[in-house]
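Problem 12. The chain below contains 289 residues. Write out its predicted structure in token notation.
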Amino acid sequence: MKYLPPLNCIRSFEASARHLSFTRAAEELRMTQAAVSGHVRMLEQFIGRPLFYRAPRTLSLTEVGTAYLPAVQRALSQIDLATGQVQTVRHRKQVAIACPASLATNWLPQRLRAFRGQFPEVEVTVHATIWTETTEQVVDLRIAPRHVSQPLIGQSLGEERLAMVCSPDFLSGADAMTSPADVHRKGLIHILNRQELWQTFARHHGIPDLPLVQGLKSDSSNVALEMAAAGLGCAVTLASLAEIQLKRGLLVEPFPAEIPSGWGYDLRPGELPPNWASERLSALLVKSV
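Solution.
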């Protein structure tokens, strides 16, 4: 694009050609008449041909100016349309986020509540995903699980610690749990594809004989947590996924410990261009961890 003249020159020419008056063009563009006239002369010098016939009280287009005007007006119209579209996207009061279903159920709602408290006019759409699958929906933001051995994409929401949770009933009665090793008696609930979580728990607490294969199994963290709340055994999961059920007293964490899980979540940009709503939600999510 080495033959583009300055935009101010183009605007001054278009307005002058439409009004056939430097004075009225200057009023429209909120410039001085001398500035508009100077822009037109600069454009004529750039092109190397006169665009107007100038007389003491009249202004008319030359053949070159007449031929040039429609193309200039089309170009300005396209710039105006594109700019309006960008501004509309930038200022739209909507944000769509794709998030693993377990995180969307147990962690995200409280953050969205804080976001809606600050920006009640913003419409929020949440698309739940399963494991590392991505939704076909076009979104502003994506939250994806990531092992610490994998490269960071976007912004990290921090590495998760492990939480071993169970029903509050497991802590009372003659058969109450009193040490981490007692999970053996209560039974293990396994989350498929995350079997290493129990291994990490056992290693941290020094439980070499923990049966790491026996017990109930589910491919859903939410289902595993519900089974634990129903008293079907103990579950080990990422702390954020158990957060809401712990707050509600449906589950307890009898032996809290800072056990790194090796897993975390990344907040990544989606397919839509950034807008003020997605930027503010992104900042809130990062700040909340």
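Discussion. Strands lie at 52-54, 59-61, 94-100, 123-129, 141-147, 155-165, 188-191, 216-218, 234-238, 260-269. Students who got a different answer should revisit the alignment rule from Section 12.3.
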